[in-house]
Amino acid sequence: MVYPWQQRQWQLIMQQRQQQRLAHALLFQGPAGVGKKQCAIELAQAVLCLQPDASGYACGHCDACHLFKAGTHPDYRLLAPTPPATSASANPVLTIKIDALRDMYRALAETSQLGGFRVAVILDADKMPMQAANSLLKTLEEPGNDTLMVVVSSHPQRLPVTIRSRCQVIRFQIPDTAVALEWLGKCGTNGAQTALKLAHGAPLQARDFAETHAQEREILIKALISAQSGEISIQYAQKLAQMPRDYLLNWLLDWVSDLGRLLTIGADAALVNEDQRKVLMARARRADRSRVFGLHDQIYELIRAEGIALNPQLLWENLLISWENL
Ligand SMILES: [Zn+2]
Hints:
By secondary structure, this protein is α/β, with parallel strands linked by helices. Helix content is 52%, strand content 8%. It has a five-stranded parallel sheet, sandwiched between helices. Residues 49-51, 58-60, 62, 64-65 line the site of zinc ion (ZN).
């Protein structure tokens, strides 16, 4: 089943499928953490299933479903970015490998082994090297019969326009807060409200945060508070360097944005880090507005340049110093 907030997208796709109007290539786009990947995989199984139910979902027990669940369906490929084979970094650069793409092209071009559709799902498709994107284009221009490719991306603007224009776009959005909170409640997520705020409303990211990353945020907050009182701790920089950079930088960006809000709107400003209002207010009282915006831009650029190799400890030492000097 797809998530409660994806019903509209699911029904639209099923309707088009029924009317045999479904495009050969779909682009699932929308913010990270709203379940695009899960919906794409659900769709792949549904399309391959030999006896889908009335709502179009896979039956779960036919031969095709068994193979799909075992990860051995011969007419199905799932591609996702992977780190370099030799990388020992805590934050390796992830890319979609050309070899995996070639294997996918072959699978889509060959005759279906089970006599039905051939389906490929490409996750984080924007992490594809240019050369790979060009070869993908060829497949999109000459799709075989009974093939479906689902291209998934949270940053579709990074995909070449030639690829985007050959896919039917299915948009996924941040669900209503009430719907997201209800779902998080059913998952038994602790601190759902704070987690959802930190995830900017994306329910899966909120759950992931609460289950896996809450402690990391605590370490970041401790590092910021200690830097705030004039103590740049090398130890903290070392610890932060070992943690997932994407998460940390995005939290820090929110943290600095909150500070900017307090400085421009005042004490009533709505904050992402609502649970840390007191600490932020104390920092805002002696912060320089232009420096706050400068640091905001600096962090934003670091997030954008995700693939660039930086010495992680130096990065965090610099950021903590910048925070202290605001
Ligand atoms: Zn089935």
